[in-house]
């Protein structure tokens, strides 16, 4: 049973339509920025991954924080605080990070890798075959071979800032901000939260199944513990593991599969 520390903030409960609109808004903003940038950069031989990094920094993160700030000020009568924005901050014990968090990090990384050939590739060659190559995000170390070493270092430094340091805003937004405001739905709330989180990635609809499966245990864990801290630990940990793995491949520190 979840810890009954708190449900939704006073005056902050969301219905399904409101929750969907708030979750998808940053995804729409990201898509609108990514589209022209991906087309432009790809035409110049620069990986579209750079377009995603820039879209995260200039669209997703600002829109997410703007929505949270406006909503919290309305709930509190004009004051924004982190405690009001993220009401689920119960203490998480070290063994819960170790026994639950670390395995979920590894499982999440495995899910992303396993579902790509099983689900994503068939969808990209079937229903989404019409999507242009410059739009589809694929990670292939070979796409960096034609770039200068200096440019690759700059791109990968930007990747660290965008994905490792900034992208965890996704977790704060989805599980820290939105999930508590749908807690009055009971056990259905985490499942709906994970579904919206998957669809939020509008730049990759062929990955929705994987994102949903990946985020579902995070959502239930945050809901159960009433703490976004465990969700942040898993989300950031997964991104760090992926970033380190990609770094090893790009710079020849590991054999290319």
Report on the architecture of this protein.
The protein has 257 residues and is mostly helical. It has one domain. It is 68% helix and 0% strand. It is built from 9 helices and no strands. The chain has helices at residues 16-43, 49-76, 82-85, 94-125, 149-166, 169-178, 188-200, 208-225, 228-250. The termini are far apart. Residues 1-6 have low confidence and may be disordered.
In short:
The chain has helices at residues 16-43, 49-76, 82-85, 94-125, 149-166, 169-178, 188-200, 208-225, 228-250. It has 257 residues and is an all-alpha fold. The protein has one domain.
- Stretches where pLDDT is under 50 for at least 5 consecutive residues are 1-6
Helix-strand makeup class: mainly alpha
What is the helix content? Answer: 55-70%
User: What string, H for helix and E for strand, traces the elements in order?
Assistant: HHHHHHHHH
């Amino acid at each position: 049973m979840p810890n009954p520390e708190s449900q939704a903030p006073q005056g902050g409960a969301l219905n399904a339509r409101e929750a969907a609109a708030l979750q998808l808004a940053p995804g729409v903003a990201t898509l609108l920025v990514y589209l022209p940038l991906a087309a432009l950069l790809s035409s110049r031989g620069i990986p579209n991954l750079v377009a995603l990094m820039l879209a995260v920094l200039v669209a997703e993160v600002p829109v997410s924080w703007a929505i949270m700030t406006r909503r919290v000020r309305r709930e509190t009568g004009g004051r924004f605080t982190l405690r009001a924005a993220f009401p689920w901050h119960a203490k998480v014990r070290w063994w819960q990070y170790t026994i639950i968090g670390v395995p979920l990090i590894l499982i999440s990384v495995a899910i992303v890798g396993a579902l790509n050939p099983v689900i994503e590739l068939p969808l990209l060659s079937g229903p989404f075959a019409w999507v242009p190559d410059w739009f589809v995000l694929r990670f292939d170390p070979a796409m960096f071979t034609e770039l200068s070493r200096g440019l690759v270092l700059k791109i990968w430094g930007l990747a660290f800032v965008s994905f490792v340091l900034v992208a965890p805003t996704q977790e704060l937004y989805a599980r820290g901000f939105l999930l508590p405001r749908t807690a009055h739905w009971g056990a259905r709330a985490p499942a709906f939260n994970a579904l919206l989180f998957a669809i939020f990635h509008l730049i990759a609809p062929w990955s929705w199944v994987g994102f949903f499966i990946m985020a579902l245990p995070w959502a239930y864990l945050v809901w159960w513990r009433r703490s976004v801290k465990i969700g942040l630990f898993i989300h950031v940990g997964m991104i760090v593991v992926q970033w380190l793995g990609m770094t090893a491949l790009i710079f020849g520190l590991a054999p290319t599969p």
